[in-house]
Design brief:
alpha/beta; Rossmann fold; 3 domains; binds (~{Z})-2-methylbut-2-enedioic acid; binds iron/sulfur cluster; Quinolinate_synth_A_type3; NadA
């Protein structure tokens, strides 16, 4: 039964005691978050992972690239476990290292050494490593503006991986015109100029989040018609046109704080992952909170992590046979860490 499952997870946690830390991303199911020792967004969890020097086992309830980052930032004797190996991220999987090599060759032929590569943390360790090797750095949605400012000072152009929307929305905040952004299409191996052809300052990889792109401009119009005075709050992984119409946009942490700091009676339509919107709804009954798109599903890969997988992971540790260990090869990890460390120093 459900109570039995919770009790078995609690018992396993007690048995492992200080040897275990469970990290939970804000997009996880409520019943998994209930068992996490720390919850956070990807930047917060990366920082927490880096500070955990005593825990031998880190069970990461989130997606694959986040567990890779935790492995990169923790000591070599610490073991990072992802309860379901199939919990990937469709956005991260939209850029593979071979394709990025091809892109880099093409754009450096066109624009010489005027380009700095920047990758969203939602990318594989191999992509972070490529970026680290080419003098670039990682970025999260909560430090995007600081990192962009740094990158634009370092070079004339940015190659932004793998989320075109976060890249475009951040570049707009810097006053870069839409026609000075192009999109690299890895299937066609060419540059597209969806908003007209200027001299590109930002080359956006043609990737997207399958969850956040489901919030469309029409949803903003519909929700405003239905709830007069409602504030629309979205994540910058949403399309530019949606972000432009919203009242506010920002990272997971920004969204949580905006709600936490709002007075009772505030009305919000939130455009981000379903589990997080639902949790905010439960935690703030004094406000009216709706999803910007009520038809949306949770992030399917985040949702793969459930209590049976969590318990299975803990039981495997207890029997001395940990499974689903995430181990980034040392060479990849070294360069990926260089890209992450540059970001952590700046943000
Ligand atoms: O996976 C995502 O979409 C996000 C926003 C992760 C994070 O924690 O920044
Ligand atoms: Fe990836 Fe989007 Fe899911 Fe985040 S919400 S893990 S970016 S697919």
């Amino acid at each position: 039964s459900s109570e039995e499952l919770d009790e078995r997870i609690r018992a396993a946690k007690r048995a492992l005691d200080k040897d275990l830390v469970i990290l939970g991303h804000h997009y996880q199911r409520d019943d998994v978050i209930a068992h996490s020792d720390h919850r956070g967004d990807s930047l917060q969890l990366a920082r927490i992972a880096a500070s955990l020097d005593s825990a031998r086992y880190i069970v990461f309830c989130g997606v694959h690239f986040m567990a890779e980052t935790a492995d990169i930032l923790t000591a070599s004797e610490q073991i990072v476990i992802l309860p379901d190996q199939n919990a990937g991220c469709s956005m991260a999987d939209m850029a593979d290292d071979q394709e990025v090599e091809e892109c880099w060759e093409m754009i450096t032929n066109l624009y010489g050494d005027s380009i700095i590569p920047v990758t969203y943390v939602n990318s594989t360790a191999a992509i972070k490593s490529f970026v680290g090797q080419h003098g670039g750095l990682t970025i999260t949605s909560s430090n995007a503006e600081k990192i962009f400012a740094y990158a634009l000072q370092a070079k004339r152009r940015i190659l932004f991986l793998p989320d075109q929307h976060l890249g475009r929305n951040t570049a707009v905040k810097f006053g870069i015109p839409l026609n000075e952004m192009c999109v690299y299409n890895p299937q066609q191996m060419n540059l597209e100029f969806p908003y007209g052809k200027g001299d590109p300052r930002v080359i956006l990889w043609k990737g997207h989040c399958s969850v956040h792109t489901k919030f469309e401009p029409r949803h903003v119009h519909e929700v405003r018609a239905k709830y007069p005075g409602i504030r629309v709050l979205v994540h910058p992984e949403c399309m530019h046109e949606t972000v432009q119409l919203a009242d506010e946009n920002g990272s997971t942490d920004f969204i949580i704080k905006a709600v936490r700091n709002a007075p009772p009676g505030t009305k919000w339509a939130i455009g981000t992952e379903h589990n997080l919107v639902n949790r905010l709804k439960q935690e703030h009954p004094e406000q009216l909170i709706v999803s910007l798109n009520e038809m949306i599903c949770p992030c399917l890969t985040m949702n793969r992590i459930d209590r049976p997988h969590l318990l299975w992971s803990l039981d495997n540790i207890l029997t001395g046979k940990p499974q689903n260990i995430i181990m980034v090869p040392p060479d990849t990890a070294r360069w990926a860490k260089a890209a992450i460390d540059r970001m952590l120093q700046i943000s």
